Amino acid sequence: MPELLRFSIQARVVTALFTAMSITGVFGSRVVAQQLPSFDIYLVGMRDGRVDTTVYAVKNITDRPGYDNHPAFSVEGSAVMYVTDQSGSSIDIYRYNIKRGHKLQMSYSDVNEFSPRPLPVRGYSAIIEERDGKLGLWNLTADVLSGDRVLPDISSVGYYAWIDEDRVALFILGDPVTLQIAHVKTGKRTVVASNIGRALFRIPGTTDISFVHKVSEENWVIKKVNPDTGSISDIAPAYGDGEDFTWTSDGRLIMGSGAAIYEWVPSRGAWRIFYDFSDDGVGSISRLAVSPRNDLLAFVVDR
User: Which residues pair with 68 in a beta bridge?
Assistant: First the structure.
């Protein structure tokens, strides 16, 4: 495995640009941003597919000035993984134990890590910015010093979603950005869409991958692609001016906008309020994650 060492100045600039463009959703634009914005990660309970604060009250689990982002639940749903600049020297992966309210630092390195996701068998995956500024997808075990680079020929991964053990959907940086399906064993990859948003999710109960297609500046559509056939079909228009959505474990499509989360109702062909957090002092909601048991919802909020 290549040694992961301290960033070069060039790599730090790449990271700042990548982070700023990821947050604003304007890849390919000229972005000047050296300071990471502040985000918090919140948790709230769910019951029968709805938000239920009696299961778990609305809680800010990071609650500090700084960059806390990219939440994902562990396989069993007992913890939330996320990235943070808490160490002050790089962006690291932490794990929040929900029952104990305890934070554990999972990665100790001088490189930045993004988008941790649990693997079905053991360990987790993440995007690592390597010392030369390349953004690679890694499968990891205990920490960032124990793992393997997935798809070594691909070095511009912005986001990803696992389809199965051998296939992964990739948001590839470029002009334009593209959605690609890659086979881990062979390295073969296929471009299936361009001008996509940062949210990539496998639809529960299927192998279809959902994404936002930015058809034009005014027209953003949530679509799905069948990785076996490459066929693409519409699901719903994106709500508001956001691009972050996810799926509940029972197959509901939800999306954040302002201090509220909205749910797509296919039978009506319209969005409706899923839950409004305005009375909880919550700011603008972005990234979302739902626990495997459908009993907890994590979301990112502007601080």
Answer: 84
Residue 275, pLDDT score: 98
Contacts 24+ apart (CB under 8 A), 146-151: 147/1, 147/123, 148/1, 149/1, 149/2, 150/125, 150/184, 151/182, 151/184, 151/187, 151/189
Say if residues 223 and 255 touch (Cβ distance below 8 Å). Answer: no
Mean predicted lDDT score pLDDT of the chain: 87
Please indicate, yes or no, if residue 26 is contained in any of the structural domains: yes
pLDDT at 23 over 50: no
Q: What's the whole-model pTM score?
A: 0.88
Q: And the tokens for 192?
A: 């299936």
- Token pair belonging to 82: 């996320």
Residue 4 forms part of a structural domain: no
Can you give the residue range of the structural domain that contains 175?
9-302
**Cα separation of 51 and 133, whole Å?**
40
What's the angle, vertex CA 208, arms to CA 140 and CA 196, rounded to 5?
80
CA 169 – CA 196 distance, rounded (Å): 12
- Domain containing residue 86: CATH number: 2.120.10.30
3 in any annotated domain:
no
Beta-bridge partners for 42: 60, 299
Q: Considering its fold, how many domains does the chain have in total?
A: 1
Residue 2 lies in a domain: no
H or E segment to which residue 115 belongs: strand 112-118
Confidence of residue 142 (pLDDT cuts 50, 70, 90): low
pLDDT of the residue at 18: 46
Contact 170, 157 (CB under 8 A): yes
